Amino acid sequence: MLFNSIEYLWFFPTIFIFYWILGRYSTLQNQNVFLLLASYFFYGSWSIFFLSILIFSTFLDYSLAFKVSSPSKKTAKTFLTLSVISNLGILAVFKYYNFFVNELTESLTNVGIHASLPLLKLLVPVGISFYTFHGLSYVFDIYRDKQKPIKNIVDYALFVSFFPLLVAGPIERAGHLVPQISQKRIFNFKQAREGCYLILYGFFKKIVIADSLANIVNVTFEIHQNYTAMSLMLTAIAFSFQIYCDFSGYSDIAMGSSKLLGFEILSNFKFPYFSKNIKEFWKRWHISLSSWFREYLFIPLGGSKGSTLKTIRNIALVFVFSGFWHGANWTFLIWGSIHALIYIVYVLSQKKNANQPANLFRKTVQIVSTFGLVTIAWVFFRAKTISEALSYLRSIIANLYDCPDKFFTGEGLANTQVIPYILAVVLIDWKIRKEERNIAVPIIKNTTFLIVLLIVFKLITNKEAQFIYFQF
Fold it and tell me: Measuring CA to CA, how many Å separate 264 from each of 171, 252, 319, 357?
C-alpha cells in the first residue's frame, strides 16, 4: 500500500478513528494490538509472503535479545553474532544472492570455466533493509547495555513494524520509540495539526514535485545522447531534487501520520542541499541511516581516534557499506565510493581551511560546490549501469566541448520546465530553514488551498508512482 494511493486515503482515517476510540475506552495493550494488526495489514497488502518474513525476523530478534542480555559476555557475544548472521543472512538471500551468483558466474566464464549456478526466483521484500536495521540496532544496544530486552512481544513487534516508517524509514531506535509505545498516549490537537501539515507538505513534494520531475528525468536518461549539455545538466539537477522530494516527502508523510497517532519519530532530513560541505550534508540527509552507520560501524571500528590511515579506512568502509545497503548493483557501490572520496578529501583538508573567514560569498561557493559534487554522484545512483552513468557524464563534457554554441539551443531545451519545480522547493526550504525546523506550518497553512488543488490535479493527471526508497 502506497502513501499516495486511494487505499491509504481510506486506510489511515479508518485506523485513526478506531485507534483513538480504543485509546479512550479500552486499554493501552488493546490499542497497541490494534495498531500492530493495522501495520501487518498495511505491509501484507503487498504480499503475505513478505509479511511472513517480517514476522519471522521480529520473533527471531525478540527471542535472541534475552540471550544477548546475559551477564556472561561469552554467551551474549555468541547470541549477538547469531542475531547478526541471521539478520544479514535474510538480507543477503533476498537482496544480494542473485547479484553475487551472477558476478561469480561471469568471473568464472571470463577465465574459461563455464558454470551454471542456481538463481533464486524471489522478489525483494519491500523495506527489508529498513526493518532489518531496526532489529540489528535493538540487539546491538542490548549488548552494549544501552537497552533492556523488551518483555512485551506486542511492544517489540510494533517497534519493528510500525506502518508509517516500516517500508522506508526513518530507522528508529528502540530507546526512542518503545517508551512511546509502552505509555498511554493522549490526543494532542497541536501535534495533530502539525501532523496534517506535514502530510500535506509530503504529498506536495512527492506528487507535485518529485513525480513531475520524474517524467522528464526518466525520458532524458533513456536517450541522453540526443540532448544538449544544458538539458543534461538540468536533468541531473532535477534528479537531485526528485530523489530529495520523493524521499523527504515520504518521511514527512510518515512523521505526520505518526504525529496523528501520538508518536514523535526521528527526523530524517534537515535541508541537505544547503550544506556547505559533505560532512554537513550527511548530517542532514537520511539522518537515521547515517547516524546508524556512525554508531554501529564507524565508531566500533575506531572512528577518527586512530591514525589518519585508519580514519580513511573507516570512512571508506562506512560509505561502501552504505552504497551496498541501497542495492545489489555496482552503481550503488560507485555512488558510495564517490561520497567516501569527497568525505576523505574534506577531512584531510579541514585543518588547513579551518581558520578561513566565513562570508556570504564563501558560503555560497561552498553550498554550490557541495551540491554539484552530490549531483554528480546521483548520476551513478540513478543510472542502471556504470557505463550508462559514464556515458551520461561524457555526453555533457562532449557537448560542451564540441558544440558550445548549442548550449542554449537544440533538442531537449524543454527540460527548462524543471526550473519552476526546483525553485519552488528551494524557496520553501530556504524559508523554513531560517528556523531550522522541518514543520512548514506557517507556509503550508497560508497556501493550503493552492497546494490541495495542485495535489488533486496531479493525482488526476498522473498515474500512481511508487516511492524511490521502497526498493531498498
Answer: 13, 12, 28, 38
Average pLDDT of the segment spanning 134-142? 91
337: confidence class by pLDDT, cuts 50, 70, 90: very high
CA 148 to chain centre: 28
User: pTM of the entire structure?
Assistant: 0.87
Could you tell me the CA-to-CA distances from 382 to 126, 167, 265, 330, 372 in Å, in that order? 19, 20, 28, 12, 15
Cα dihedral: 385, 386, 392, 394 (round 10): -150
What is the average pLDDT across 126-135?
A: 86
Q: In sequence order, which residues have a C-beta less than 8 Å from that of residue 283 and are 6 or more positions away?
A: 270, 275, 290
Peptide bond into 420 cis (omega under 30): no
- Per-residue pLDDT tens over the stretch 72-101: 888 999 999 999 999 888 888 888 877 777
Q: Cα–Cα distance between 310 and 119 in angstroms, integer?
A: 38
DSSP 124: P
Burial class of residue 190, CB neighbours in 10 A (0-12, 13-18, 19+): exposed
Which residue among the candidates 134, 286, 326, 339 is catalytic per the annotation?
326
Boundaries of every domain in the chain: 6-186, 191-471
Tell me the pLDDT band of 428, cut-offs 50, 70 and 90.
confident
Give the chain's radius of gyration (CA, Å): 23
Reference 266, options 201, 336, 188, 177; nearest CA is 177
Which of 467, 469, 420, 442 minimizes the C-alpha distance to 206?
Answer: 467
> Which of residues 403 and 223 earns the better pLDDT score?
223
334: cell is: 560507485
326 is annotated as an active-site residue: yes
Q: How confident is the model at residue 436 (pLDDT cuts 50, 70, 90)?
A: low
CB contact at 8 A, 243 and 255: no
